[in-house]
Write a structure and sequence with these properties.
Rossmann fold; 2 domains; five-stranded mixed sheet; 17 strands; about 10% helix
């Protein structure tokens, strides 16, 4: 998404300057210990980093006193990085350090929170810094301890920070997009405004999204122009009720030409129960979310049920399971909903992904989703035109939705992966 805020540009350059200045600082030490030439890297700590979006080349260059292995079973230290969105719009990175083999039972957890205006390089520096800190108790028990020097930065005076925004964070986004050929042109405009306030007790989110698409195509020397638009305002209010319970309100106000809705309002009070404490959310969750409420709809055209406007009562239940461990990760959900006036008007959907390390070098990834759809109450009466079908300008009747994929990876050879060589990038395909 293209950022249009002047403040974000200013924050970007400030953060970049600060990151560069950090890298340029020289540690002040009276005398550094002489390196032991008899110590070889083969005797270093063997680690496995389980991280989806880490710059491994950067980490290998910054942390050369360990051995990076490709198989979790070969590692003496397993490191898992998980990420959660913070209320400010940044990210909270949690690092779980779990000892294996002779380090079994030596575990630790560290966390680092980035700001929303932090550059990727600045985040990369401090994410790697957290890895270094967490590794030290293990590295200290290996022969390579003599190759590591720890230098503190200058002491900083601790100031009390007053938050004039009271934890409120605002974000503006805009993205125009254009593509065209001789007989086809498309202009798409996207914009959004969001306001969030997240504390341990409350979660407040307000999001407005606008999308407009104009498509022009020429067929048999005739120019056709079609428009598709969407405006949506989403509100979420959640109150924490202990380690397992939450209560809140979900509401949506929308207008969608694709869904034949001129004006729609959904109000859904909901309650959620997490089998596991929310404090363990970076590792595992099993949440049950139930909501019951009403919706008011004013349609653009008469529906297949001969309605131009109606008020409906409905309920929904979602069960979501997430876990991330050494053996892999699972993220699946089962959701169902129905309208009270006719229980046959319902929807059931199941989807997610599973990633499993089967044995040394072999991993399996499965993703997919399936939905049984019987609640399309807003379908336009009559048949859709050829343009509406080809350009997906109008929702079409269907009884199901299906998607999926399967991936199998096997890697063999040297268990070590310490060397960085950036030459020629990752290769290039010319055709």
């Amino acid at each position: 998404m293209t950022k249009t805020s002047i403040f974000r540009f200013a924050s970007f350059f400030f953060s970049l300057f600060f990151a560069i200045s950090l890298l340029g600082q020289e540690p002040e030490t009276a005398r550094e210990p002489e390196p032991d030439s008899s110590v070889q890297r083969v005797n270093g700590l063997r680690i496995f980093i389980d991280c989806a979006r880490c710059d491994m080349n950067y980490i290998r260059e910054e942390v050369p006193y360990v051995n990076y292995v490709r198989d979790v079973k070969e590692a003496q230290l397993y490191i898992l990085e998980t990420r959660e969105r913070t209320g400010s719009g940044g990210n909270k990175y949690t690092y779980s350090f779990m000892g294996q083999k002779e380090f079994a039972g030596i575990n630790d957890t560290l966390s680092y929170s980035s700001r929303p205006d932090d550059t990727r390089d600045y985040q990369r520096i401090w994410r790697t810094q957290m890895l270094k800190m967490g590794m030290m108790p293990y590295v200290a028990k290996t022969p390579l301890y003599s190759e590591v020097i720890i230098n503190p930065t200058d002491a900083m005076e601790q100031d009390v920070v007053e938050d004039n925004w009271n934890n409120w964070v605002f974000e503006l986004e805009a993205e125009p997009d254009f593509e065209g050929e001789e007989s086809y042109k498309e202009l798409e405009l996207r914009s959004s405004v969001s306001a969030t306030r997240i504390t341990h007790e409350w979660k407040l989110e307000l999001d407005f999204d606008h999308r407009y698409t104009r498509t022009k195509y020429t067929y048999d020397d005739t120019l056709y122009t079609n428009d598709k638009s969407y405006q949506g305002l989403d509100l979420l209010v959640v109150k924490s009720l202990g380690d397992h319970w939450s209560a809140g309100l979900r509401s949506t106000l929308l207008s969608s030409s694709y869904n034949n809705i001129n004006l729609g309002l959904v109000v859904m009070p909901s309650v959620e129960y997490n089998i596991f404490p929310y404090s363990e959310s970076t590792h595992r969750q099993l949440r049950l979310l139930y909501g019951v409420g009403s919706s008011i709809r004013i349609y653009n055209d008469s529906t297949i049920y001969d309605q131009i406007e109606e008020m409906l009562w409905q309920q929904s239940l979602q069960i979501a399971y997430q876990v991330q461990e050494k053996w892999g990760s699972v993220n699946v959900s089962l959701e169902g909903s129905n309208f009270f006036h006719d229980f046959s008007k319902n929807m059931v959907a199941f989807g997610g992904y599973i990633s499993i390390r089967i044995f040394k070098g072999l991993s399996l990834r499965v993703r997919g989703g399936v939905a049984r759809i019987n609640d399309q109450l807003s379908l336009v009466r009559g048949s859709a035109s050829e343009a509406e079908i080809l350009l997906q300008l109008q929702e079409l009747q269907t009884s199901y939705h299906l998607e999926g994929g399967l991936g199998l990876t096997y890697t063999f050879g040297s268990i070590y992966n310490n060397i960085v060589n950036p030459r020629f990038g990752n290769g290039r395909r010319y055709f």
